[in-house]
What we know:
With about 120 residues, the chain is mainly α.
Amino acid sequence: xxxxxxxxxxxxxxxxxxxxxxxxxxxxxxxxxxxxxxxxxxxxxxxxxxxxxxxxxxxxxxxxxxxxxxxxxxxxxxxxxxxxxxxxxxxxxxxxxxxxxxxxxxxxxxxxxxxx
Length: 116
């Protein structure tokens, strides 16, 4: 009786495992079909193209602003002998890149400061 129980349990586990493996193989084969691969690649290429166009427009705007004298750099605001510190280490002003301007909540327009 013990052997029969173990045999039936093993057979059921084998059938279930084979069924799960078959589903996974079919899903992977469907995902790797040429049409699906082409769709994924075309989507990625489209995204890369759009990112490139955005970066190009931003760079063109920056270059036009520099040409027209509307752009200021950190070096423009420094006096002779001033030092720029990043994380406590001195760096050259031309090597500092500001990724995002962070404004203090108290300096935000429309924010009223409490008078002490």
